[in-house]
Structure to design on (328 residues):
């Protein structure tokens, strides 16, 4: 389906965007990237457009002439950051989700993928797609979660009013991989990797290690997105995760095994850890689009750690929505 197609990837310089762009080019697509990042982070085989997706004119230029849109641009940060910077999370998400999708509709784009989030779910041990709207999202996620929910609702509205039903919606779990955000606002895996690589010993980890999360490598998410747009573009949300939980204690053990210099781990049980268990149900992903993750946690963490070591000098050269100058 992608051979010869003209495809726009918003956020195509990000952690998921980069492997997705690589895969699309390998599949024969003509790829355009729209992002606020340094052009040096983009695949040189793709067309790069630097601009703000909250601007109507830029959205129209970026989408002009493309057949498909993968909308990956987003705001990402560690637990608790949305409570400290709620407007920085919510407002850009609402703006560019609305503008990119509306621009795609006006331009007559054939197919579009909308990237939602695990955050849209109400608190539960296991997340099933059709249960997402049974209640409000977790209190700590409410600002970005409601923005992501509005994007899903916008897609459904277009299907009902305009008959545009070729929109795929994916809800990735906790994504990690090369190109992740290793800044102080980053998520648990990149944060631990940076601290370990920078010599923190003993390593201090929040909680007691019992919290269970669903981690998925960015390359698996990118592949799942391509499957979703090809086989599941009907406005039906699809979870993309590993399908199995990993306790933070086990994650730390994997990292310590990879980096034997860490001799001691201290668990700070006075710090918050969030919900005890958060797992994705992958039944729909397996049955509807034939998705199965390929990258093991051990291989993925080791690859990400090695990538950080090789790129440490430039790892902060990325757009950061939470800084005044847009830099990490």
């Amino acid at each position: 389906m992608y051979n010869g197609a003209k495809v726009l990837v918003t956020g195509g310089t990000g952690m998921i965007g980069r492997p997705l762009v690589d895969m699309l080019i390998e599949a024969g697509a003509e790829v355009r990237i729209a992002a606020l990042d340094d052009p040096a982070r983009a695949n040189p085989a793709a067309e790069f457009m630097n601009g703000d997706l909250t601007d109507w004119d830029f959205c129209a230029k970026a989408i002009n002439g493309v057949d498909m849109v993968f909308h990956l641009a987003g705001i990402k940060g560690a637990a608790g950051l949305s409570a400290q910077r709620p407007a920085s999370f919510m407002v850009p998400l609402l703006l560019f989700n609305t503008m990119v999708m509306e621009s795609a509709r006006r331009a007559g784009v054939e197919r579009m993928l909308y990237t939602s989030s695990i955050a849209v779910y109400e608190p539960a041990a296991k997340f099933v797609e059709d249960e997402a709207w049974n209640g409000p999202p977790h209190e700590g996620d409410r600002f970005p979660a409601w923005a992501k929910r509005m994007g899903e609702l916008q897609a459904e509205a277009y299907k009902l009013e305009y008959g545009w039903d070729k929109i795929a919606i994916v809800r990735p779990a906790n994504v990690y991989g090369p190109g992740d955000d290793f800044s102080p606002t980053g998520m648990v895996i990149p944060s631990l990797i940076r601290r370990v690589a920078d010599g923190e010993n003993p390593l201090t980890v929040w909680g007691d290690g019992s919290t269970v999360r669903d981690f998925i490598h960015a390359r698996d998410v990118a592949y799942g997105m391509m499957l979703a747009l090809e086989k599941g573009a009907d406005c039906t949300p699809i979870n993309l995760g590993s399908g199995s939980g990993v306790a933070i204690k086990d994650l730390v053990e994997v990292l310590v095994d990879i980096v034997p210099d860490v001799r001691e781990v201290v668990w700070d049980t006075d710090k918050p850890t969030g919900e005890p268990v958060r797992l994705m149900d992958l039944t729909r992903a397996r049955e509807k689009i034939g998705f199965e993750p390929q990258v093991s946690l051990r291989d993925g963490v080791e690859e990400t750690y090695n990538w950080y070591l090789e790129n440490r000098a430039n790892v902060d050269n990325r757009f950061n929505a939470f800084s005044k100058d847009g830099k990490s």
User: Anything to note?
Assistant: The mean pLDDT is 91. The domain at 6-314 is CATH 3.40.50.720 (Rossmann fold).
